[in-house]
Amino acid sequence: VQLKESGGGLVQAGGSLSLSCAASGSTFRIISMGWYRQGTGEQRELVAKFTSDGIAVYGDSVEGRFTIYRDSAKDTVFLQMNSLMPEDTAVYYCNALSYNERGPLDYWGRGTQVTVSS
């Protein structure tokens, strides 16, 4: 599975940005997809994802401000980020959980920078 992210960039606090992540390859084995982020000197954390049951789950810090949605036909997930705050500044990574005969597999995109200025 390959993940290609797009979007991100620089925005002022209170603004909006959107990200997209397109999966290719053995996408039929993908169980869930979503977004994580990692700020400088911080651990990677969940932003939002679709579970294997198709339920959207959000990190506490983005609940109510970010929305994840998807185009299943195109194996693409999107992240709409509103009311951005400087604390949202991070590298955002697309993630896909898949599997093969040996067990689960985690795939990551290369990441896209989101910078929110105050």
3D structure, described in words:
- With 118 residues, the chain is an all-beta fold.
- It has no helices and eleven strands.
- The strands form two sheets. Strands 2, 4, 5, 6, 9, 10 and 11 form a seven-stranded mixed β-sheet that branches.
- Strand 9 (90-100) and strand 10 form a beta hairpin.
- The N and C termini lie far apart (37 Å).
- The mean pLDDT is 95.
Radius of gyration computed on alpha carbons: 14 Å
- The amount of beta strand, in percent, is over 45%
For the sheet with most strands, the description reads:
7 strands, mixed
Summed over residues and divided by their number, the pLDDT gives a mean of 95
- Number of H- or I-type helical stretches: 0
User: Helices and strands: which structural class?
Assistant: mainly beta
Instruction: Count all strands and give the number.
Output: 11
Percent of residues in helical segments? under 10%
Question: How far do the termini sit from each other?
Answer: 37 Å
> Low-confidence parts, pLDDT < 50 over ≥5 residues?
none
- Inertia-based shape: elongated
Subunit arrangement of the protein: single chain
Order of helices and strands: EEEEEEEEEEE
